[in-house]
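The data are quoted verbatim for reference:
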Amino acid sequence: IVGATYDVLPTPQNLSQWVGEDGSCKLCMGVGSLKHILSGCKTSLTHGCYTWRQNRNNLSKFIMRIILTRR
């Protein structure tokens, strides 16, 4: 969550600045910014990626499971 707040997550746009990779979204070839990845990609929207994330009962519980499994 802190990484998202400061926009330091390895999004395509950040990776293009850090290591010279392609900065476009892998799904729609749009700008791969954090905002785009989280809520702006039309391809993700049409494929149900955002509703899948919201239908996971509670997003915070999903994130907590990921954090706890990486310990």
